[in-house]
Each structure stands twice: as C-alpha cells, then as structure tokens.
Amino acid sequence: ADAFVSAVEKARGLNAFVIETPEHAIAAAEEADRERAEGKLRPLSGVPLGIKDLFATKGHQTTAGSRMLEGFTPPYESTVSGKLLAAGAGMLGKLNMDEFAMGSSNETSAFGNVISPWRRKDGGNAPLTPGGSSGGSAAAVAARIAPGVTGTDTGGSIRQPAAFTGITGIKPTYGRCSRYGMVAFASSLDQAGPMAQDVRDCAAMLEVMSGFDPKDSTSLDLPVPKWEANLSSDIKGKRIGIPKEYRIDGIPEEIGKVWDQGIEWMRDAGAEIVEVSLPHTQYALPTYYIIAPAEASSNLARYDGVRYGQRRAPDHGSLDDMYNATRAAGFGAEVKRRIMIGTYVLSAGFYDAYFNQAQKVRALIARDFERVWQDCDLLLTPTAPSAAFALGEKSNDPIAMYLNDVFAVPASLAGLPAMSVPAGLDQQGLPLGLQIIGKALDEQGVLNAGLAFE
Ligand code: GLN
C-alpha cells in the first residue's frame, strides 16, 4: 500500500497524474491477495495501472486535459477501463494528456505540461517533453510509477510518446478496442491501446482491452486472439518492408542510423528485408490535419455549457452569449485552432476542396498499404523524426509540432496496427523508437516482430 502512495507522490514531480486514486489500486491489491488464497486470480489481479484521462471513469473526474471538463464526474465507465478493472487491475490515477488529445508534447494540457524523466547529456537539467498526447502515460511507465497504462492514438499519441520515453506502445487495428466512454477527438481515427515496459505486458493488456462492444458502432465483431500465449520472437522468413518514402530529408542522421541498425537486427534474425514503396506517404500529414480537425470540430460541438462540465453565463446574456463565453473560457488555444480549421474545411464553400479531397487521399493512402502487403508482411520505420525535444521548443510553432507526427499518421489513416519499440539511444542518451506496422488484424505479427527487438 505504501508503494502505491509513494508512486503517485513521485509522479507529482513529473505532473503525470491529473487525479490520484492510490486507494483504488490498494483495494485491488488486497482483493488480489484474497483471490490468490482461493486460487482464483484474474488476468490482471492486483496490477496497478494508470488510466489516461480521456477514458470516462465512473465516480472519478474525467477531464480529457481540458478546463471545459473540469469537475465532470462521469456516471459510467468506458468499456476499455471497465474491462481492465474487471480483469482485476487497480487504478493509480488519471493520467495527464494534451487537451482533448490534440498535441505531440503534452503542453496543451490545461493542467500543465508533463515532464519526461529523461534528460539530455548536454542539456543541463532542461526539462524535456515526454511526447503527446499520452505524455502522462509515457512518463508514468518510463519513471516506473506504473507497470502499464492506457493510451489513445489518433495520429501517433501512443507511439510517439512511447518512442520519446524508451517504452513500448501499440495502437491496435481500428475497431479492436471500443471507443465507448473515450472522449472523442477524431472518431474515425481514435483507438485505445496499452503502453508498458515491454511487448509481453502490452500483449497481456491489449488482450483484456480488446473485444466487440455493441455500444461502439465501429467496434469489430471478432474474437480476441491469444496474443500473449502466441508470442514468439521467431521472425525467420518474414518479409520486412522498408518504405523508401520514409527516408525524408532534414531529419537527424541518428534516426536513420537506428533504423538501419534495426534493419540489420531483423536480417540477422532471419527476416527477409525488401525495399517497398508507399507513393502517397507525403500527403498523409496534410490529409490527417484536415480530417482530424474536421471531425474534432464536430465532436467538440457538444461542449455547449449545458450538457457537460463548465458553464459561463454572462448576466442578462442570450443563449449564444452563454455558448460563446463557455467555449472561450473552456477551450485552450490549440483546441480553438483545430475547431476553426475543422469548421473551415467542412464549410459549404470549401468542403469539396478540402475535406472531400482529404477523404479521397485517405483512400489512396490505405490502398498503398493494401498493395504493399503483396511484397511484405510487416513494415519497419522510425516512430518519430526526432528524439524528445525540450519543453517550449515547438510550442509556439504549430507546423513544427505537426511535423513530428509525419511517420505516425499514415497507419492511423489506414486503421492499421502499429507499435513503437525502443531501439537504442542517441548521442544525447535519449531513447529512439522504431515503428512496426502490420496488416489489419495482424497484431500478432506486429507484437512478435517487436519481441525480436528485445
Ligand atoms: N499529435 C497528433 C495531433 O495533435 C496526434 C494526437 C493523437 O494521436 N491523439 O493530432
């Protein structure tokens, strides 16, 4: 019990939790003791987990990193967190995140940025970002505060923070994990997934988190495979595709080095390395930054000061005055930027030029992947174009921030399973990650290839 309390206290220095619930984890550990005595342990009995604050948790405040939802206590549990708790896990707390999961550095959180437990060798003690939007999640695992956490990934938010903090995180195939009770950002992209110390823990958690849910209309009605039991690091004969379009100019040499090293490791492990082409890769980032804000602007229309969370109602004002005051005070700058972009690209005069066009390009990007599976079984790429950057370094430059998602968004647009595994350190001693992308529903292939790196 003391361990759980001291773990959440340690997390305060990193600002990893928005709310702390060690008593919940303690109760789960006590329950696990009883189950052990009776020989009736569940898959995650007594395991203390952190839950990203995007998941609605019954009776516990859920903010999605936004002032707008401050004080909002859901009367229901998200499917994913409910499954983890039903498997015996205890909740240490709700993890800090970028506001409504919009960001790559955790700096858009209304509750302050998260600090990575890592430091650059030459950087003095300058604090670094843990990545985002699941930055609290990544920091908690990297600092050994929680053995596993939930993340969500719309355009890289599990994989990029995992890479920045030297941990493992997998975004499953779109539809594997129910979105019920997950605060919506861009519904056609949002997926939950686990982040943990290694592939095995991710496999065990993902197995619990996945499964058909009639409460999510895009949930896949398929049985959940036994990923953990079927883990195998044997990748002999697997064809690993290296997409040439991911060799982009202007990224640090060390990213390319770690990638080449990963290719060599896989070759040594008996895999066949093939150069492949995904010709529409360069359009993925602009496509994502049209579709995601468009869906966000629609999803976030629900925050009207009536149904959820905060309300600002000026005296003697109209209904519109209340909407305006509530949304002006409740949303941060990045969220407002996305709502404006999204509203613009969906507006009558611009719909065909932007949103509709982006939907077509999205289909082309998905088709690139469908074709590439004729030549290979999995793809290996860097997770992010840089190591963790300093807090403040990109926070006033949205384009630089968006560019950090360049390798993550194609798999998101195509709905494919993708995982980041730690692949070494750069010269500053900071972790770099490699990304393994698989065919739809081939989480097993992705996990197994990841295991080959451990
Ligand atoms: N960084 C991306 C964005 O800001 C992805 C975020 C995410 O995956 N939730 O949209």
TrEMBL record:
Keyword Transferase: yes
GO cellular component terms given for this protein: glutamyl-tRNA(Gln) amidotransferase complex
Domain Amidase: 1-447
Biological process per Gene Ontology, one example term: translation
Residue numbers annotated as active site: 52, 133, 157
Catalytic activity: L-glutamyl-tRNA(Gln) + L-glutamine + ATP + H2O = L-glutaminyl-tRNA(Gln) + L-glutamate + ADP + phosphate + H(+)
EC id: 6.3.5.7
Entry keyword Methyltransferase: no
InterPro entries: Amidase (IPR000120), Amidase_dom (IPR023631), AS_sf (IPR036928), GatA (IPR004412)
GO MF term set: ATP binding; glutaminyl-tRNA synthase (glutamine-hydrolyzing) activity; transferase activity
Taxonomy, superkingdom: Bacteria
Pfam families: Amidase (PF01425)
Quaternary context: Heterotrimer of A, B and C subunits.
Family matches, as HAMAP family: GatA
Annotated family: Belongs to the amidase family. GatA subfamily.
Name of the molecule in the record: Glutamyl-tRNA(Gln) amidotransferase subunit A
Organism of derivation: Allosphingosinicella humi
